[in-house]
Design brief:
By secondary structure, the chain is α+β, with helices and mostly antiparallel strands. It is built from 26 helices and 33 strands. Helix 18 packs parallel to helix 19 and helix 19 runs antiparallel to helix 21.
Length: 924
């Protein structure tokens, strides 16, 4: 038996303690050990062997091990071992672990020997180790799943670390896209892709790393070299996002890319995601503490002082509380106070400051102590560093949060469900792909209900085959808006199955991406391609036809020019040849005018006049121009005027005549039998405006319904056979229709009133436009005085506009033009000097007095604009008339702005030239 003093000393120890005799029987145990027994010990210790204590009595294996170790200790050796034991805890019996130490009192004498046994409970430490291991295994499993998921994602993803941009992760898509399937983890970007340095790629990474700003590059061009010395040029949409640590410091870059080369050439798929992985480490050993009944700390193990870097003087008593994070101190104090009031165990997590000033998350487990009389003595417990476990949990949450944010940012839907199918777990993006609100509950039936009826069965079969054959599921289907069946989305779904140890499917997970925009782009691209091919064909046909139309009169001009050089021609033949050359030149000019008119209309630069003129005379003059042609073909040509047609209107007579001549000319050209009727009426009239309709009906070849849509398209006729048979550029109707719109009207193709014949269906073109009626209230249309509309051609007598005695300077770099104009003007008495460029013309005009200057625009050394400005700056005010092939309205305005008095376009009309000179030199 032990003395009370020894027993009291044992009871002060913060660990389990016992004294054994030379046979291994228990002489004494301390109160802490006795209180931990699962059953009362009401017998003499001299009768109880150590291995028969209540701790071990239910575990024969542990008792045998302990019996052997006690015997070894009695022989003089110290023993340390870990044992399983049963103890009382919180009113229950639990199995735990102790670290037992056996020390012999007298190693040299077995008969006079005794054993001191001390033990520390390490149950919580062992449980913590198992918990950390389980957490690590779970993290590894999640990491494997995330890596598998990322490797199934078609979006290339990579992680770069440090300012050198070291590759730390690539998914399969990234390896395939950038490196031909080769992994470059462990290399910097510059090492893996030296060619990226000269392409601005490294500079972008440096910018993101230094500024912390997000970079998004659209259709970024790259050239990547492969190991076999080949290279690939492609375009990618790049996203670089700074990666930060827990302190907010930039530690790397998260990059993703989408290969948009097919979209630059024929647009393809886009997908983006990210991931981040980090390993966990095991927890550190526990720190032991003990308090008295007043909750003052009376003992702290050496491990505590090593961890905190403080002294017993600082931490015993209540000083240890100073190491707890201020934010965690109130909750810690509350837990301690509650446990003390109930004299029960306590458990609390808080952050503890280490000797470097860093805080670690720890778990504090405490147990109440009582003496043999049940008097409360205080607490004994352990503090275990669980910072790595908490950090691992937070990191996993951070990874999951970042992945979810990335999925949301890229529109990536994530779904998973247990098998067999019942309720499906979808994130917000998947629900939006299926026209569902974020809080919708999703079932397998709802899934199929939202899929387009034509896609349901193929989708069901794809899922079944994927599960059955253990292969990935990849399909694109349409989802339908239940509120509007015409609204659909194209959704691509990629999935895979998770199987248990027996190979049975247990989960089906995957991703979705809305491909509607890509699908729409593909369709628009195809439509654009067809439209472009159609337009190109139309333009090719037009160019071929235009070549024919231009070369035909040009060939006649060149041919008859050669014939007219024959000195043996009589006067009649020469006159006929000259007339032929003039006629073909006019036809060639008309073709060019049509092209220029179309260009003016298309560019919105067409100018419309609004003057009073005799509408009836314009109609009659227009018909007269075709009277002879109709007579040659044996056709009638009739004009019918309704009584309400105004005789005088205000509009643009030149453009009206152009439209009317084109429509009547087409009717006469395409009619072989019968004739043409021009029917004019006023469809409506109110106030000072009338809606006039000119209806031109012929008995010609007609136009097939399926070819009517092409009539008003540029460069097109009804078909190429029409061009071959009747000729023409295909511009007349296009220009006329554009002019009609400019006049506030339109041209329509209508059905004939009656069939013109079995083989001649005929056609009707109706031209409507708005006409102002500008006459005084007291006047009637029949009595109003009007300005005569310009005639189709005006015959002037050169003798009336004689230039006799005038001295004219002609500047033109073309010798042929200089000769032509000199001869034309000399015939009416003018004296002409010539210059070959603007610089020579300026010198001559400043030293000689001329009545007028004829200035070509496009000349070498100094053009006509610059020469005109130079003469005006020298205060030379004589008329300067621009003679140029530039025929657009802006060309006319530019000539006047430069200082020209008038602008005449080539080819030169002799009468227009003479009359313009007369007008500006004030000749009678």
């Amino acid at each position: 038996m032990t003395t009370p003093a020894i027993q009291s000393l044992l009871d002060t120890l913060p660990v389990f303690a016992a004294i054994l005799d030379h046979q291994g029987r228990v002489l004494a145990v301390n109160s802490l050990m006795r209180e931990s027994f699962p059953t009362d010990l009401n017998q003499d210790f001299s009768e109880v062997f150590f291995w028969d204590l209540p701790w071990f009595k239910n575990d024969p294996e542990t008792r045998d091990v302990l019996k052997q170790r006690v015997a070894s200790c009695l022989n003089g050796s110290s023993e340390n071992l870990d044992l399983r034991y049963e103890r009382a805890y919180d009113g229950d019996i639990q199995t735990g672990w102790i670290e037992l130490s056996l020390k012999p009192k007298n190693p040299t004498s077995q008969s006079d020997n005794a054993i001191t046994a001390t033990a520390v409970d390490r149950t919580h430490r062992e449980a913590l180790r198992e918990e950390v291991a389980a957490s690590q295994k779970a993290v590894e499993l999640e990491r494997a799943k995330l890596e598998l998921m990322f490797n199934q994602v078609a979006i290339p993803i990579t992680m770069l670390e440090g300012p050198e941009h070291l590759y730390t992760y690539q998914n399969k898509s990234h390896r395939d896209l950038f490196y031909g399937g080769r992994s470059v983890v462990g290399l910097t970007v510059a090492q893996a892709s030296p060619e990226a340095v000269d392409q601005g790629f490294i500079q972008l990474l440096n910018q993101v790393y230094k500024t912390g700003g997000r970079f998004t590059g659209v259709e970024f061009p790259l050239t990547m070299h492969r190991e076999n010395d080949s290279h690939r040029d492609f375009f990618v949409n790049l996203t670089f996002e700074p990666s930060r640590n827990g302190k907010g410091e930039i530690v790397g870059i998260l990059g993703s890319a989408v290969d948009v080369t097919p979209q630059v050439q024929a647009r393809a798929n886009m997908r983006e995601t990210e991931s981040y992985f980090q390993e966990l480490v095991n927890a550190s050993p526990a720190m032991i503490w003990m308090t008295d009944a007043d909750s003052r700390c009376v003992y702290l193990s050496q491990r505590w002082y090593e961890f905190t870097g403080r002294t017993p003087e600082q931490d015993l008593g209540l000083g240890w509380l100073e190491n707890i994070h201020p934010e965690d101190l109130p909750e810690t104090a509350r837990v301690y106070a509650h446990a003390v009031s109930n004299k029960g165990p306590l458990k609390v997590d808080y952050r503890l400051r280490d000797f470097k000033g860093n805080y670690h998350w720890t778990i504090d487990l405490g147990f109440p102590r009582f003496d043999t009389n049940g008097v409360f003595l205080g607490y004994i417990g352990t503090v275990t560093d669980i910072h790595e476990r908490i950090a691992a949990q937070n990191e996993l949450k951070r990874i999951q949060t970042r992945f979810e944010r990335s999925a949301k940012a890229t529109g990536l839907g994530i779904w998973y469900c247990d098998l067999p199918f019942d309720e499906l777990m979808w994130n917000t993006q998947v629900k939006s792909h299926f026209w569902l609100p974020p809080d919708a509950r999703v079932t397998i039936d709802l899934f199929y209900e939202r899929i387009h009826p034509e896609d349901r069965e193929p989708t069901r079969l794809a899922i079944e085959k994927s599960i059955e054959h253990k292969r990935h599921y990849d399909i694109t289907y349409r989802t339908v808006n239940p509120a509007n069946a015409s609204e659909i989305k194209y959704v691509r779904a990629v999935g895979w199955t998770d199987y248990d140890g027996q190979g049975n499917p247990r989960r089906f997970d995957g991703l979705t991406l809305d491909m509607s925009a890509d699908k729409k782009f593909q369709e628009e691209l195809q439509d654009s391609k067809i439209a472009a091919e159609t337009a190109n064909k139309a333009k090719s046909d037009f160019l071929a036809n235009m070549s024919h139309e231009i070369r035909t009169p040009l060939g006649a001009i060149l041919g008859f020019t050669e014939l007219i050089s024959d000195p043996n021609l009589d006067a009649k033949e020469r006159e006929h040849y000259v007339a032929t050359i003039r006629r073909n030149g006019t036809a060639l000019t008309r073709i060019i005018d049509d092209i220029l008119d179309l260009a003016k209309v298309e560019s919105g630069k067409l100018e419309i006049e609004n003057i009073d003129f005799s509408f009836v005379e314009l109609l009659q003059d227009s018909l007269e121009l075709f009277r002879e042609k109709a007579k040659e073909k044996g056709l009638y040509l009739n004009l019918s005027l309704a009584p309400n047609v105004p005789k005088t209107i205000s509009s643009d007579p030149t453009r009206l005549r152009q439209i009317i001549l084109n429509l009547i000319g087409n009717a006469v050209k395409f009619t072989q039998v019968g004739g043409v009727t021009v029917d004019v009426s006023a469809m409506s009239a109110s106030g000072n405006e009338a809606r006039v309709c000119i209806r031109i009906e012929d008995t010609g070849v007609g136009i097939e319904p399926e070819k009517r849509d092409r009539l008003f398209q540029p460069f097109a006729q009804a078909d190429t056979s029409t061009t071959r048979k009747f000729g023409g550029t295909g511009l007349g109707l296009v220009v006329s229709n554009r002019l009609a719109h400019a006049l506030g009207g339109e041209i329509r193709l209508e059905q004939p009133d009656e069939p013109a014949g079995a083989h001649q269906p005929g056609s009707v073109f109706a031209f409507t436009f708005n006409a102002a009626l500008n006459f005084a209230d007291s006047e009637t249309p029949s009595t109003v005085q009007t300005k005569q509309a310009p005639r189709a051609s005006t015959v002037l007598d050169p003798a009336q506009d004689s230039l006799a005695g005038l001295r004219i300077l002609l500047a033109d770099d073309s010798a042929d033009n200089r000769l032509l104009i000199t001869r034309l003007l000399a015939k009416v008495g003018a004296n002409v000097d010539t210059a070959v460029n603007g610089l020579e013309a300026c010198k001559m005009a400043m030293r000689t007095s001329y009545d007028a200057v004829l200035m070509d625009i496009q000349m070498p050394e100094m053009d006509g604009y610059e020469a005109t400005r130079a003469l005006r700056e020298k205060q030379i005010s004589i008329p300067i008339i621009a003679l140029t092939a530039h025929a657009m309205a802006e060309d006319h305005a530019r000539s006047l702005q430069a200082g020209c008095s008038a602008h005449i376009t080539k080819p030169i009309n002799r009468l227009d030239l003479i009359s313009t000179i007369v007008r500006f030199v004030n000749r009678p």
